[in-house]
Specification:
Chain lengths: 299, 493
């Protein structure tokens, strides 16, 4: 039998992964949820047919989302994680003893249920007593909180579908308000490579840039995401992601990582020229102009 | 006395509302692969590949003209007739007409049906301009009733029964009463009371239900025109009902002659009615008949949720049923989400612009004190979360000291000429100050409260001129005049 999972990365490019079997398929109130077993990537989760994580490369994404801000902020006690129904980013956060409380806001409870059943390697994060789950729209949750969090991690899906509210200017503004005066927000910032992803990346950057005094972008290599070249946004009220990093203090914690290290942290903020250009274009645009993007067409 | 929605009972349909005869006939036609030697000339899209790729092949194949199996909109005998009967049944009407010229065409047909040249129609002053335009065409004469304006929100309200009674006594020869059910802002007059009063005096009641398609499908909403016993209603199916823009229903009660109404419609309606519009009306009627109650329950719940969230932001006020006073606000359409913005120091139109420019959120309308979100069958809670989130951000980033509302004065108009006579009369521009005593040849609106200060044919009094100066000083938005600075006014020679 020739069984493949395929995802279109653009209308003209697709990635296919051979599948041994489908472990779960179900439709929640919000989306189609599927879990597959594959020879190359192990188990993987898709939502509405889009790849969310694979057993083989999820560590890259989750480590880069969690450890970069944790190496910068000196005193993270209360964290808000938005999205992240698979639990991977929570797993990384629970490795810090200094964190006292983690609120996870996931719109779709089914995703957490499915993850607990089929993706124990990420869902193990939910077992920690410091973690509290809230099943509601992140946009709604965050606007009811003010001056409360040291760190907000936005582990969103895509700028379309149930997660689209997490790419909006009002959401980033509400996150700003929910953070303490030295708070940091890190978000999944799409990819610079294919035109559609690049536009989403630009829009997100523009909106975050409009809300935060410090706004930088860093990168990682994630093989199963479109083009493999993925970006994260680092937005902060006070700390610079590189100048204020506390490399030796972080190393002293003795947290063992597979992808992240403090040298890589520094390097991740060094971006290719074309990416810099796409981002800078957004920083210069008048605030209400989202139409004239460079779009990455020539990328 | 409170609003009428409490006493509503759900209706049983007489016909099988699962059918959609026009859509079914189109489906059959498209599968027959008929060779088209008729119009439209794009011939299933083949003649216009760019348009076909833009709109989609399916759309082009369904864009056909009247033919034997598809009936004819001007004289329906088969599938359109059946579809009209189903629509009548769905709305509890004696007959229904598929309209393809927007609800404006339905409003025109109502005016043309009830009034000929020189006949009077009692109308609220905040009537839609399509009504006055229809009067320009047919020569009917308006008798205005003051709808009043809300002190805080500055919106026009509904007509008092006592004011209508007075208008009837002063104009016993009036042919009909025109009612908005509801207004843009969701305000309803006592329609059942008006119908009783009108019928007792031999007058018809015609209803602009452009913003009230959904009233017929929920027992949690104000009474609909047909439920109240009105004689005609223009129903904007494309607004809250989900059909394509420009499609509309005209529905009539049992006292009206449907054949005469059809003749009136055919005076101005195209003989090439779009089957895209017709099928969209047909399928939307089916959906509302079968699922309307459940769909509008959701819309009401979403609106109530949004109101409570918006009101917890602080500053803004999204008003609801608490406005109902049994008089000028006889009832309120709970699907309407109107947000009063002055307490956050921003005009409604400013919030409208900020939502659009900064947050990619398109509102329906913004006036001086309010902005309006139009909720319907296609809305989602997650989009409302964005609206609420953005409103909070706008208050944080752009909020100022509260603005107080503008007081509004109702000036009873003096109709010197019919709108038709004034419109076609020779006219001239005269200096603002010397316009007193002349007859206006143009209309002038003032926001707030969105009520005309002058309409064509009305006497320009000292009071009118003083009010315009005052409103301009107060920063009201004044529209409609050819010379928007108001240095001159256009008057009848």
């Amino acid at each position: 039998m020739d069984l493949w999972f395929s995802e279109l990365h653009t209308p003209h490019v697709k990635l296919s992964i051979a599948v041994d079997k489908q472990l779960y398929s179900g439709k929640s109130d919000f989306q189609q949820i599927d879990v597959f077993e594959s020879p190359e990537f192990g188990r993987f989760l898709t939502l509405d047919g889009y790849m969310m994580l694979t057993q083989k490369d999820e560590f890259i994404y989750h480590e880069m989302l969690a450890h970069v801000p944790m190496c910068v902020h000196p005193n993270v006690k209360k964290v808000l994680v938005i999205g992240a129904g698979d639990g991977g980013v929570v797993r990384e956060l629970t490795r810090y003893d200094s964190i006292e409380h983690i609120d996870v806001v996931e719109i779709d409870e089914e995703v957490v249920k499915v993850a607990k059943e089929y993706l124990p390697f990420t869902a193990c994060g939910f077992d920690d007593p410091r973690v509290q789950c809230h099943f509601e729209d992140g946009l709604k949750y965050v606007r009811h909180h003010e001056d409360e969090y040291d760190l907000i991690l936005v582990d969103s899906t895509d700028p379309f579908g149930p997660g689209e509210g997490l790419f909006t200017k009002e959401f980033y503004g509400n996150c700003y308000t929910a953070l303490k005066e030295d708070g940091i927000m890190v978000n999944q910032n799409e990819s610079p490579f294919y035109a559609n992803d690049a536009r989403a990346m630009q829009r997100a950057h523009k909106r975050i840039h409009a809300n935060f005094p410090i706004c930088r972008v860093y990168q990682a290599h994630i093989p199963t995401y479109p083009s493999g070249h993925w970006l994260f946004g680092f937005a902060s009220k006070k700390y610079h992601p590189v100048k204020d990093m506390r490399a030796s203090e972080w190393k002293a914690l003795g947290i063992e990582t597979k992808y992240y290290n403090t040298n890589l942290h520094r390097g991740a903020f060094a971006l290719p020229n074309y990416v810099q250009k796409l981002l800078e274009a957004m920083e210069e645009l008048p605030d209400n102009d989202t139409t004239n993007t460079l779009g990455g067409d020539k990328a | 006395m409170t609003g009428g929605s409490k006493g509503k009972v759900s209706r049983e349909f007489q016909k099988n509302q699962d059918r959609a005869p026009i859509a079914e006939a189109l489906e059959a036609y498209s599968s027959e692969r008929v060779v088209p030697f008729d119009v439209p000339g794009h011939k299933h899209g083949r003649g216009n590949p760019e348009l076909t790729s833009f709109l989609g092949e399916r759309t082009m194949i369904l864009d056909v003209n009247s033919m034997k199996p598809l009936d004819n909109l001007c004289h329906p005998v088969s599938v359109i007739k059946e579809a009209e009967e189903l629509a009548a049944d769905a709305f509890g009407a004696a007959a229904a007409f598929f309209m393809v010229g927007g609800t404006t065409s339905s409003v025109q047909a109502m005016v043309f049906t009830v009034a000929a040249r020189g006949d009077k129609i009692i109308v609220p002053r905040n009537v839609h301009r399509s009504v006055i335009n229809a009067m320009v065409l047919c020569g009917a004469v308006p008798v205005y009733v003051d709808p009043g304006a809300h002190e805080t929100y500055g919106i026009a309200l509904g007509m008092k029964l006592s004011d209508i009674e007075k208008a009837i006594h002063e104009n016993p020869d009036a042919k009909a009463i025109f009612v908005n059910n509801p207004t843009y802002y969701g305000i309803c007059s006592d329609l059942s009371g008006i119908v009783k009063l009108a019928h007792a005096h031999g007058m018809k009641v015609v209803v602009d239900e452009a913003h009230g398609t959904h009233l017929s499908f929920s027992d949690r909403l104000p009474v609909s025109a047909m439920e109240a016993g009105a004689d005609m209603a223009a129903v904007s199916m494309h607004k809250s009902g989900g059909s394509l823009t420009q499609s509309s229903f005209l529905i009539i009660g049992k006292e009206m002659n449907p054949d005469y109404v059809r003749q009136i419609i055919n005076l101005t309606q195209t003989t090439s009615g779009s089957y895209l519009f017709l099928s969209s009306l047909d399928l939307s009627r089916k959906r509302l008949a079968l699922q309307g109650k459940e769909l509008f329950d959701k819309v009401i719940d979403m609106a109530e949720y949004a109101r409570s969230e918006i009101n917890s932001i602080g500053g803004y006020y999204a008003f609801g049923s608490e406005l109902v006073d049994g008089n000028t606000v006889f009832d309120f359409d709970k699907t309407k989400l109107v947000i009063h913005t002055l307490p956050v120091g921003l005009a409604g139109i400013e919030v409208y612009d900020l939502l659009r420019d900064e947050y990619d959120i398109q509102m329906e309308f913004g006036d001086f004190g309010n902005c309006l979100a139009y909720l319907s069958v296609g809305d989602r809670i997650r989009d409302l979360e964005r609206l609420v989130g953005a409103l909070g951000e706008i208050r944080r980033l752009f909020g100022k000291d509260p603005i107080t509302s503008l007081p509004s004065n109702y000036i009873a108009p003096i109709v010197a000429l019919s709108p038709q006579e004034a419109f076609y009369a020779d006219s001239e521009h005269v200096a603002f100050a010397s316009a007193e005593g002349r007859v206006a040849a143009e209309s002038i609106m003032c926001y707030p409260p969105g009520i005309p200060v002058l309409a064509p044919g009305e006497k320009i009094t000292k009071e009118v001129l003083e009010y315009l100066v005052y409103a301009q000083e107060k920063g009201c938005q004044i529209t409609g005049a050819e010379d928007s600075s108001l240095q001159t006014l256009r008057v009848v020679k």
